[in-house]
């Protein structure tokens, strides 16, 4: 029969420390997802600008669509 003190010796870490790696992994995935969405949005804007026949200018991370 297993005693509760034996279980305490197997998992001595607090709950918050047990899942730190998982939380960091989820945070990393969220950051990558945000960056990918941001880049997709920029790509979409450039594509729409080209389809409209305008000139694309990227200045200080800002996309300018200049119509002729």
Helix percentage range: 55-70%
Number of strands: 2
Cα shape: rod-shaped
Radius of gyration: 25 Å
Oligomer: single chain
* Major sheet: arrangement of strands: 1-2
Biggest sheet descriptor: 2 strands, antiparallel
Poorly predicted residue ranges: none
Kindly give the count of domains.
1
Give the structural class: alpha+beta
Strand content: 5-15%
State mean pLDDT (0 to 100 scale). Answer: 82
- Element pattern in H and E: HHHEE
Topology record:
Elements: H1 4-10, H2 15-18, H3 20-51, E1 55-59, E2 62-66
How would you explain this protein's 3D organization?
The protein is of the alpha+beta class and 68 residues long. It has one domain. It has helices at residues 4-10, 15-18, 20-51, and strands at 55-59, 62-66. A hairpin with a 2-residue loop joins strand 1 (55-59) and strand 2. The longest helix has 32 residues, at 20-51. The protein is rod-shaped.
């Amino acid at each position: 029969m297993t005693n509760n003190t034996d279980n305490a010796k197997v998992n001595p870490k607090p709950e918050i420390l047990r899942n730190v790696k998982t939380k960091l992994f989820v945070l990393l995935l969220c950051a990558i997802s945000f960056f990918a969405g941001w880049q997709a949005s920029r790509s979409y804007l450039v594509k729409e600008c080209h389809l409209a026949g305008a000139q694309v200018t990227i200045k200080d991370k800002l996309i300018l669509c200049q119509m002729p």
